[in-house]
Amino acid sequence: MSTDNREFKKVMCEFLFFENLSKIAYQSYINDGNKFIYATLLFDYNESARNILVKNLQYFNDDIIEFIYPLVFHYDIWMKSWLNLNNQKIHNLHDEFIFENTIGFPQKSIEKIKETLNNIKK
User: Fold this and answer.
1) Residues 105 and 73 sit within 8 Å (Cβ to Cβ)
2) DSSP string, 47-105
């Protein structure tokens, strides 16, 4: 396996770690009354996932980069919306926290990342 493939695999595994934590936080948020505590965790995990992508662009070839852009764009819109609502008042951890998100999650991007990871020879 080439160095670039090893680095790509390492970066994508780290990204998927935070993406999976985001899924857990989101399900808890939905299932437990949209509480601020889960929204806060979701923000932290999404921010970490986004930062991993942006800081490691050098490991993405043209085939995968087109799937990275929609993810970063989604995270940026989502985080701006989240911060806008959060800045309007002080929230307690168990307060309801619902904000508008006008852009859907690019699940196709996650699928492409996983497919690419699976295709890298060990």
Assistant:
1) no
2) HHHHHHHHHTGGG--HHHHHHHHHHHHHHHHHHHHHHHHHTTS---TTSB------S--
- If one counts every other C-beta atom within 10 angstroms of the C-beta of residue 23, the result is 14
Residue with tokens 């930062």: 51
Task: Give the pTM.
Answer: 0.91
Confidence at 25, pLDDT banded by 50, 70, 90: very high
Inter-residue contact 107 to 66 (CB < 8 Å): no
Phi, psi angle pair for 96, to nearest 5° = -70, 140
Q: What is the pLDDT of residue 102?
A: 81
Q: What is the DSSP letter of 45?
A: H
Q: Which of 51, 47, 42 is nearest to 21 (CA)?
A: 42
Alpha carbon of residue 37 to chain centroid: 17
Q: Which long-range contacts (CB under 8 A, 24 or more apart) does 60-69 make?
A: 60/8, 63/116, 64/112, 64/113, 64/116, 67/106, 67/108, 67/109, 67/112, 67/113, 68/109
